[in-house]
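Standup, Tuesday
Yesterday: got the pipeline producing structure tokens again.
Today: sanity-check two examples.
Blockers: none.

Example 1:
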Amino acid sequence: MLSFQSVAEEIKPHPTKAQILLELDAANETLETALSALKPLETDPVDYYYIRKEAPALVLFYTNADVREATIILAETGFRKIKGINPAPMDSAMK
């Protein structure tokens, strides 16, 4: 089974979007709760996909929100395993 840490170590920066890896392991750690917490930060809808659906689920979000602010809000909402990855720097995205 893929662990949170092993997946977090393999994620590479996206050219234009911040990424947030979440582990959904407790009753209050749901996809709906995460999307609701991120909604006020977004100008576009949040894209996401499941890396692992069986418990504990791993979900990777692609967002245009400030990754630092988003991870703080998710932590305050009750998520415990969070990894935020900033977009790739502009000069490396253009290469």
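Example 2:
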Amino acid sequence: MGVPLRVSPVTNDWDRRPDCAGCGVSPCPGEATPADGPYSGWRLAALSAGIFLAPVLLAILGTVLAGPKPERQLIGALAGLALGIGVSLAVAHWNPPTEPDVP
């Protein structure tokens, strides 16, 4: 069995790993593998965006719904922000990370 090859990120050519002893074990134990956590890919992106955007969007909505007076807009924004933070905390609390299923 030959020495494992990889694509060089600079030249896009196949070359040998400099730290590889050519043991033939696949996958290579010296190579980093992507973490398979409870949240990865689109789930991680959607949950992160939702937790971040909920307070911002509810603060904007509170400002718009409060009316034209600046005092009421401030109160609406703070109320919407507080509600958004509460929603984000509730989502984070009800959606705890769990270990991935291992076959």
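Quick observation on example 2: Residues 42-66 form the longest helix (25 residues). The chain has a mean pLDDT of 77.
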